[in-house]
Each structure stands twice: as C-alpha cells, then as structure tokens.
Specification:
There is one protein chain. The protein has one domain. It has a two-stranded antiparallel ribbon. It has twelve helices and two strands, in the order H-H-H-H-H-E-E-H-H-H-H-H-H-H. Strand 1 and strand 2 form a beta hairpin. The chain is mostly helical. It is 74% helix and 3% strand.
C-alpha cells in the first residue's frame, strides 16, 4: 500500500488540486441551483470568462499585480454577470427548469462564441505568479508549487463559504428564503434581492475559478463545456445546496479524474460517470442532499 501511494503521489496531489478548483466552481452552482432553484447552464461560460481574463492580465508575464488584477476583475465581472442572469431568469421563476436551462444555455453559447472571436481558437497559456511558477519537493517527488497553493486556497475558501452559509445571519437569511419565501417576504425581505445576491456570489466564484484554473488548463474553446459537466457531476454527487457535499464531491471527482487518467486512461470518462451512477443508486439525493434545504 505504501509503495502504491509513493508511486501515485503526484496523481493523488493532482486529484486534490483539481478537487479544490472544482469546489470553487461547483459550490456556486450548488448554492444557486440547490438554494435559489435556478439552473444556470452558463456557469461554465463564467469560468471561461475568468480564464481569458487570467490570460489578459497574467498570460504574457508572471507577476503578482497582473494575477491579482485578474482575480479581482474576474470576481467583479462574474458578480455583474450573475446580476444580469438573475434579472433574465426572474420571469421564469415559476416555470419548469427546462426554460431556465434553455435560456442560460443560449447565453453560454453566445458568450463562448464571442470569446472565440476575440481570442481565437487556440489554447492560451496563463502563467502562475512569481514564487509559485516553480516546482518543490514533496516526499521525494517534484511537484508544482502553484498546485499545492491551490489545494490550500481551496480549503480556505471551502471553510469561508461553509461558515458564511451555515454560521452567519446572512446564511440564515438565505436558508430561510429557501425554506419559506412567503414568510420571509412577510417580514419585509425582498426575495428577489436575496436571489440576485446569491446568484452574483455564485457567478463570481465561477469566474474566480477560471483565473485560478488558468495556470493548469489555460484558456481555450470547449473548456466551458468540460468544466460545466464536471461541476454538475460534483453537485449531483454532493447533494443540491450542500456546501459540505460540494466539497466532498469535488475531492472525490478530482481523485477519479486524476487517478483514472493515470492508471486507466481509456476508462477515465467511464469511471467519472460510473462514480456518479454508484452514488445515485445508493443515495438518490446525493451524499449530503436534503429534500428542501442545504445541510
């Protein structure tokens, strides 16, 4: 067992890095869909916007100002886009999810096409900031410092999101809006503003994930579809609206992705959806899913 761990240490660490990135992306989708009941298929396009902003500000040179500017700009752009999506989906609030899916999918296709026109069809490289654009020794193996930093950052963001949603008055207001919107409205709270705020934060996290994933995946056409599928798998496995579930699901899918491609590359995609099917057979609502509200 120890020998297997040593042999596959790099793949395991890659799984944690991918899992951390997936959590940052999927947590926003889980909150928006699980709590606000908005099926946002433009989530991957928001990630892609962040990736291209990472290239715009940090693609040519490795600098902290450029990378931090990309993070701030992406978060702001994602939040603004979330506000727009909230306004667009508000008339569809009482209609089937298919209507929301078609609308947000159309937005995603338009955004992806505009980005392809603006940046071309090549995969563009995004540089990690200084100090993280090197490799370090981990138990005798060489491993990129940026991916280690991403693992730590993912854990910090997971803790912050969990505390905000589960342990603060803001989180309580969001959960109350989900559980009984009429009662919250009777208390003078505008549910539309709550929805707008949640969608803005979730979209901001998606764009932020695009910048953070740039040094690993770069920025290019088709990336939005790939990350959207992974995020949806994570959300379904973890359970709608559950931050804890999104975290566990992201780490699980990260390991399946990394170890699957390293050990059985021909079956990696099958393993991904096989894990999804197995969890749904055992736990139809996901690992930490609840009927109405987040866990």
């Amino acid at each position: 067992m120890v020998g297997w761990f040593d042999t596959n240490l790099v793949s395991i660490l890659n799984g944690f890095a991918i899992g951390s990135l997936l959590f940052i992306l999927a947590s926003g989708l889980s909150i928006v869909f699980g709590m606000m009941d908005v099926l946002n298929l433009a989530h991957g396009a928001l990630y892609l916007i962040g990736a291209y902003l990472g290239y715009q500000f940090a693609g040519d040179t490795s600098s902290w100002p450029g990378f931090l500017t990309a993070l701030g700009t992406a978060a702001l752009a994602g939040m603004l886009a979330g506000g727009v999506l909230s306004t667009m989906t508000e008339p569809l609030a009482r209609r089937p999810h298919l209507d929301q899916a078609l609308l947000t999918l159309g937005v995603a296709l338009v955004v992806a096409e505009l980005l392809a026109i603006g940046y071309g069809n090549d995969v563009l490289r995004v540089n990690a900031p200084p100090g993280l654009n090197r490799s370090v020794q981990v138990f005798g193996d060489t491993y990129p410092a940026y991916r280690l930093a991403l693992i730590g950052l993912g854990a910090l963001i997971a803790l912050a999101v969990y505390v905000v949603v589960e342990r603060t008055a803001v989180g309580a207001l969001v959960r109350a809006s989900v559980a009984d919107r009429e009662m919250v409205s009777a208390l003078g709270v505008d549910n539309r503003r709550v929805k707008l705020a949640v969608l803005a934060v979730g979209s901001g996290l998606a764009a932020l994930a695009g910048v953070l994933g740039g040094p690993i995946y770069g920025a290019g056409p088709g990336l939005d579809e790939r990350v959207l599928i992974l995020a949806l798998v994570v959300v379904v496995i973890g359970g709608l609206g559950s931050i804890k579930g999104a975290f566990v699901g992201a780490l699980l899918i990260g390991q399946v992705e990394s170890l699957g491609r390293a050990l059985v590359p021909d079956l990696a995609s099958f393993m991904l959806f096989g894990a999804l099917a197995l969890v749904l057979i055992v736990r139809p609502r996901g690992l930490f899913g609840a009927p109405k509200a987040a866990v």
